[in-house]
Amino acid sequence: MPAPRKYPLELRERAVRMYRTTEPKPVIRRMAEELGVHHEALRNWIRQAEADAGERGDLLTT
Q1: Mean pLDDT, each 10-residue run in order, the chain (62 residues)
Q2: CA separation for the pair 59, 62 (Å, rounded)
Q3: In this structure, are residues 41 and 31 in contact, taking their beta carbons and an 8 Å threshold?
Q4: Which of 15, 31, 36, 55 could pair covalently with 26 via S-S, beta carbons 3.0-4.6 A apart?
């Protein structure tokens, strides 16, 4: 059984969507603070979403 997630999936999806649709791109650390999540968690979510969208070649897709 996998470990429980610290942040709900809905929060993760909303945070990534907010980051990707905001222009100019917000500072990840500040945005994470506003959302109440750790900045590295948000950075990883964004990187994974970019990989899943085919925008990054250095990570595996989910």
Answers
A1: 85 96 94 96 95 83 82
A2: 9
A3: no
A4: 31
